[in-house]
From TrEMBL:
NCBIfam families: arch_pth2. It catalyses: an N-acyl-L-alpha-aminoacyl-tRNA + H2O = an N-acyl-L-amino acid + a tRNA + H(+). InterPro entries: Pep_tRNA_hydro_II_dom_sf, PTH2, UBA, UBA-like_sf. Its EC number is 3.1.1.29. GO terms for molecular function: peptidyl-tRNA hydrolase activity. Keywords: Hydrolase. It comes from Biomphalaria pfeifferi. This is peptidyl-tRNA hydrolase.
Amino acid sequence: MINSECCNLHLLSSFYSFIDSTKLKFENNGTMSSEKEEGSEQNQPLFQPNEEAITQIMCLGFSRNAAIKGLFYTGNQTADQAAEWLLENNDKNLDTPLEVDLQNLSDSSDEDDFLTTESFKMVFVVNSELNMGVGKIAAQVAHASIGLFRNMIEDEAKAEMLMAWGHLGETKIVLKGESTLQLETLAAQAAALHIDHYLVQDAGHTQVAPGSRTVLGLFGKVDDVDRVTGKLKLM
């Protein structure tokens, strides 16, 4: 449970920062106006993060810049997903502004193909009714990721999506599935929506029976994938 006192402090901090940054003042006629010039709408930031999620992430000890990055690279969805991404990428400099990341991408790329406001993610749904051990689950998730990659890399357009995903943090989420039937149903939904997916059928050498559906992997735009797996809980 997130500490309420911590959240209140961050809310107050965000409020005062907002007041300071907008620099509102009363003019001589007593009306309140902003120092922002006309046409400032053209200078609106490319990314508008979920402020409620930022507060929750900051309560976990991350900086505001880190919270913004976590939300950007996970499609501006939930604090949980952003925090998971931050933990997976704690070897990176998370406290620099997002704009620095985007500028570095621009400088290091020969073309603008990978500079996109669209976010992608790879999701793995684990069949929990099989009661697999941690090591077994890890191996099956690896099978799903390799299967997805092999299916997509031969298609030029899909390969570019994978490259964009790689440039934007390679978001990976592991979710809890209830049963084989649910995984098969989700796979059918993904197929209907033209979402790339791969359903692992294990050889059955350890822990599970041959042909068991262990993990469903999906890859695509965040909003598209969430249409299939958005209601599932984290593993």
